[in-house]
Each structure stands twice: as C-alpha cells, then as structure tokens.
Predict the structure.
Amino acid sequence: MTHNTDIICIGSVLWDVIGRAASHMRVGSDVPGRITRLPGGVAMNIAMTLRRFGMKPALLSAIGRDAEGNELVAEAQRMGLICDYLYRSADLPTDVYMAIEGANGLVAAIADAHSLEASGDKILRAMGDGRLGTANAPFTGPVALDGNLTEELLQTIAKSPLFERADLRVAPASPGKAARLLALMDHPTATLYVNLEEASLLCQTEFSMSHDGAAGLLKRGAHRVLVTDGGNAASEGTAEDIISHTPPAVLVTRVTGAGDTFMAAHIASEAQGMDRMAALTRAGNAAAIYVSGETPL
C-alpha cells in the first residue's frame, strides 16, 4: 500500500487565539499586549514542526465547512501539510483555543474542541478504508495522538487492529486531560510525552523532577515515556534505563505550543536516525528556541 505521508497526526486542528502581555498578570488583570490568531491545536502544532524538520505529516481531524474552517485548511495546505484525510462537517463549527499569557507564563486558557469530540471515530475513516491502511494491512509508520480525543476514542485506538503496527506517540492536550492517556498507558508501542505535572497526575503522586516522573510512569506500566519540566532537565525512560538532558537557558517569551514542539522535534530526530540522547537533546533545544520566540510555529 502506498500513500503520500510518512507520519499521521490525529487530534485537534483549530485556530489559536493568543493574547500576550509583557507584564506579570493575575486574575482580573487588564493590561496592554498583542492578540494573534494562528493555526493551532496539538495535532496541528506537531504537524507544523514536523514539516519544518522535513517530514510529510498528514492531518486526521474534524474541521467545519464554515469560513474559519476553509481558511484553516487553506493555511495548512500552504504550509505543506496533507489535508486529504480531514473530516469536514457541515454541521459542526471549526474548533478554537483561546489563551492569555503574561511575563509569568500561561495565565488562563480555554480549549473549545467540541467539534472534534462530537465527530468521534469519523476522523479515523482513512485508517481503514484503504487510503492509509486496512484492518489486514494497517499503517506501520509513526502516529501522533493528542489528548483532545475523547477517552472512548483513545480506548478504541488502543484496541483497534488499524493501529496495532503503528509507532504511537501520545501527548495530553493539557493537565486537565492527562487522565485520558490512561487508555494507552500499557500499549506495547506507545510513547507518552508529558510534562512533570501531567506525570504526577497520571501517577497520583507529586514528583519533583522529570527522572522521578519517568520512573513512576514506567512503574505504572508505560512502554516508554518522555517527561519535560520547563527549563529543567527532561527525561526519556524505557524498561532498560532513564536518560536526562537539561535544555539551554533562554528568555521565555511564549509557552503555548512548547510541548508540541518538543514532541515533534523528538519524533523527527528519531526518524532521521539519531540515538536516544541526541534526539532528546535536539528536542530540548528546539523547545528552548521556540519559547524564546526565535522560531515561529
């Protein structure tokens, strides 16, 4: 079976509306800043970064047939992302994410991914109808999944023959959705990408460093994990051992999308044949460059 992609990104593809201010903010703050609208969502962020690293990502998601959806698909195609397999609904609006960031980091965010959740397994049709695979000849490359998928859909994917040969790379959309990853915790081909807070939530234990978070997840049955901790050391763990790397110190100008950048850079590095430490180092460096504002997403 042939297709035009080397990695599939499944999950949220939406508009990011981000308000950023140079000052520290708290609840009730009213300050000057900049408001931007950019293509976003975990699956979209990962796909855009993968494209910059030379890969050919295909998107599986739900996008409305409204003006916002048409504009979003056109922008994704302009960036070289494969949109042939998107589920386009005439009844559901295009999803949107809204966040406020200050000098002290993320102040608040709301992710409206209701259309993706309502679409359910319709977004997976290409995986089984012959375009990307079938039950007898499933897709065998890497698949990036994000936690904006419902727990029910993640459970379906975990048990489906359509994904049994895929290299699953899984990330929560936010700490509030981390528990959804439990459906794939013991999947034999799944690699989990989480931050320290998400690792703590999944293990119901407070961890103080990424190495401990990785050890905790492995003890819970995870096949392989990567745990980040902002500017502190990130760790990658398997049943054999755990390795760690501290990213370079940078001035943080944005945070939304940093974890997605880390994950995409790590996937691309391994696809290009880098060893474990080199891939972890490159991913940490890419995330540091991103939060410094030097690389657009």
